From TrEMBL:
GO MF entry, a single one: carbohydrate binding
Lineage: Bacteria, Bacillati, Actinomycetota, Actinomycetes, Streptosporangiales
Chief location of this protein within or outside the cell: other
Subcellular location: Cell envelope
Superkingdom of the organism of origin: Bacteria
GO CC terms, sorted: outer membrane-bounded periplasmic space
Signal peptide: 1-20
Protein name per Swiss-Prot or TrEMBL: D-xylose transport system substrate-binding protein
Residue ranges occupied by any Periplasmic binding protein domain in the UniProt entry: 39-302
UniProt KW keywords: Signal
Length: 361
């Protein structure tokens, strides 16, 4: 799979035309009397902090920068596929011109995409690959590579500790309704199969940290506390749940555990040694690229994509961004350098000494 993205920047293209007029759908363009374009953004849930803290504001800000008079219609489905269906159908009824859809259940939204196609409304699959139908663009990260990075990080940590063959690992994957989860799992198994003993493996509904905690508790009970030497967690929220379970079980030294999304709490846990690593996804790039494409589509343009991804039905034009594996020694030159978090956000009183050790001030 193509890891990077080689697109020609769209700013020059997007600067050539102007868009609509205000913040509400159906308003009129003050210059030519046409309705202002409405771009509808649908995000899947809010338990993962990235969506409300980063994806939404970054997307909205980029649309505003490129097309001050375009409208953004925003909805969060709270991990409810039926609710998201209602939101999308309402947006179509309200006259949305572009759909940017991060699906709760990416395998079940083809009928919604088909409704949009019948109305000649372009669709961008955001972060999660929608299956069963063709559409305009897919913008995400190289998800198999994410899983490979997580698996390699866990393998390296176990080797460094000398515990690779001393016990079993627990694998905590994401929701089966999210095709990205299957990619993360595939990538992790690519690296770990034949090299570690997997004691327990879970698919976690809704990517729920609470459910991940319960799964970890079950694994500890089944395997025995001293027999768990590592945890492959597909994201930071679930890593937090697994860590809570291990603390409750009385671990003095936590085994290495992976994560993803560079959540603030996870970055702090990495600095203090509770979590081994996270996958840093440059959400700014993902959100802004999607906004650029949405504005271009609203203007009747269709920029070329650098690659395609087959979703089982069609080859979808795709922009796939590179993930970055981050351990404590890399936080300063990635997460902080990019402005994802300020040092002051990370280095609270409890983490101050760890920050100083990592050169973050």
């Amino acid at each position: 799979m193509h890891r990077g993205w080689l697109a020609v920047p769209l700013l020059a293209i997007l600067a050539t035309t102007a868009c609509g007029s205000t913040n509400t759908a159906g308003t009129q363009d003050s210059q030519d009397g046409k309705e202002a374009p409405t771009i509808a953004l649908f995000l899947p849930e809010s338990k993962t902090t990235r969506y409300e803290a980063f994806d939404r504001p970054l997307f909205e800000a980029k649309v505003k920068q490129l097309c001050a008079e375009c409208n953004v219609l925003y909805n969060n489905a709270d991990q409810d596929a039926a609710k998201q269906q209602q939101q999308v159908e309402a947006a179509l009824t309200q006259g949305a011109d572009i759909l940017v859809l991060d699906a709760v259940d990416a395998g079940a939204v083809a009928p919604l995409v088909n409704q949009a196609k019948q109305k000649k409304i372009p669709v961008i699959a955001y972060d999660r690959l929608i299956s069963g139908i063709g559409y305009d663009y897919f913008v995400s990260f190289n998800n198999v590579r994410v899983g490979e990075m997580q698996g390699q990080a866990l393998l390296d940590a176990l080797t460094a500790r000398g515990t690779l063959d001393k016990g079993k690992i627990v694998m905590i994957h994401g929701a089966t309704t999210d095709p990205s989860s299957a990619d993360y799992k595939k990538g992790a198994h690519n690296v770990l199969d034949g090299k570690v003993d997997v004691g327990r493996e879970f698919d976690t509904p809704d990517w729920s940290p609470d459910k991940a905690q319960q799964e970890m508790e079950q694994a500890i009970t089944a395997l025995g506390r001293d027999n768990v030497v590592g945890v492959l967690s597909a994201n930071d929220g679930m890593a937090g749940g697994a860590i809570a379970a291990m603390k409750r079980a009385g671990y003095k030294d936590l085994p290495p555990i992976t994560g993803q999304d560079a959540e603030l709490a996870a970055v702090q846990r990495i600095l203090t040694g509770e979590q081994n690593m996270t996958i840093y996804l440059n959400i700014r790039t993902e959100a802004e690229k999607s906004a650029e494409l949405a504005v271009a589509l609203a203007k009747g343009q269709k920029p070329a994509a650098p690659t395609t991804v087959n979703n089982g039905t069609a080859d979808v034009p795709a922009f796939l961004l590179d993930p970055v594996a981050v351990t404590a020694d890399k936080i300063k030159d990635t997460i902080v350098k990019d402005g994802f978090y300020k040092a002051a956000d990370i280095c609270t009183a409890e983490v101050k000494d760890a920050c100083a050790k990592a050169g973050i001030e």
